[in-house]
Amino acid sequence: MSEKSRARRTTGREVLAGGLLTGLSTGFAWLSVVELFSMDQVFSGTEFLTSLVVPGLVAVLVWKLWRTGLVFGVIVAYLTLLIPLIGIGIGGANVLQATFAGAIAGIVYGSPWAIWRAFRPPADPGGSAESATTADTSASPTTTTITATGEAGGGVSLDDNAVSPGDGKPVDSTT
Predict the structure, then answer these.
(1) First vs last C-alpha separation in the chain
(2) In this predicted structure, what is the pLDDT of residue 125?
(3) Using CA atoms, how far apart are residues 86 and 132, in angstroms rounded to an integer?
(4) pLDDT of 17-67, one tens digit each?
(5) Does position 139 have pLDDT exceeding 70, yes or no?
(6) Statement: residue 158 has pLDDT above 60
(7) What is the DSSP secondary-structure string of the chain?
(8) What distance in Å separates the CA atoms of residue 45 and residue 131, rounded to the nearest whole number?
(9) Is residue 133 a contact partner of residue 155, using CB atoms and an 8 Å limit?
């Protein structure tokens, strides 16, 4: 995993929205392809096998647009296809019903990942928690604070006799 992707992790809400989008798109796209293939009132095995590619394509599209994870998208898309969509497709559902069923299934199948991401500790882009400063860094550059690692950095000193980092003399706080 690269440093950029470690610094930016998806949250639980983003994963849940990605599951919703994956399920919704899978329901719409798969039944649309099935309707297109069965215009002649015959849906053969070859047409069915060809329609099985659609959830994978939807998962790749959502992964590229939403960045929730390719494996997550493929699992949610194919579970959405296998459990609700094939059943209601055999029952004669229309595209709108399949879209709603896909959206509900996407939320259901995406919720374990969303819960896991919501309760996972956040990413630490700095490398370690010890290098965080203990004061606000938007203060004047003449004051200095000591970080948890002992390094000097910009910030606000609470001491009235703050030492300037350049010459070691106390800084007059009244000027």
Answers:
(1) 50
(2) 60
(3) 53
(4) 999 999 999 999 999 999 999 899 888 999 999 999 999 999 999 999 988
(5) no
(6) no
(7) --HHHHHSPPPHHHHHHHHHHHHHHHHHHHHHHHHHHTTTS---HHHHHHHTTHHHHHHHHHHHHH-S-HHHHHHHHHHHIIIIIHHHHHTT--HHHHHHHHHHHHHHHHHHHHHHHHHSPPP-TTS-GGG--SS-SSS-TT-EEE-TTS-EEE-----TTPBPTTT-PBPPTT-
(8) 61
(9) yes
Amino acid at 18: G
Task: Enumerate residues 6+ apart whose C-beta is below 8 A from 8.
Answer: 123
Q: Please, which pLDDT band fits residue 134 given cuts at 50, 70 and 90?
A: very low
Would you state the pLDDT for residue 66?
Answer: 86
> What phi and psi values does residue 149 have, to the nearest 5 degrees?
-95, 0
Q: Which residues contact 43 (CB under 8 A, 6 or more apart)?
A: 34, 37
Please, are residues 58 and 68 in contact by the beta-carbon 8 Å criterion?
no
Q: State residue 12's pLDDT score.
A: 87
Residue 8, amino acid: R
Q: How far is the C-alpha of 8 from the C-alpha of 123, rounded, in Å?
A: 7
pLDDT (average), residues 82-96: 93
Question: Would you say 134 and 146 are in contact if contact means Cβ atoms under 8 Å apart?
Answer: yes
| Token pair belonging to 133 | 């400063």
Stated pTM of the model: 0.66
What residues does 144 pair with on adjacent strands? 154
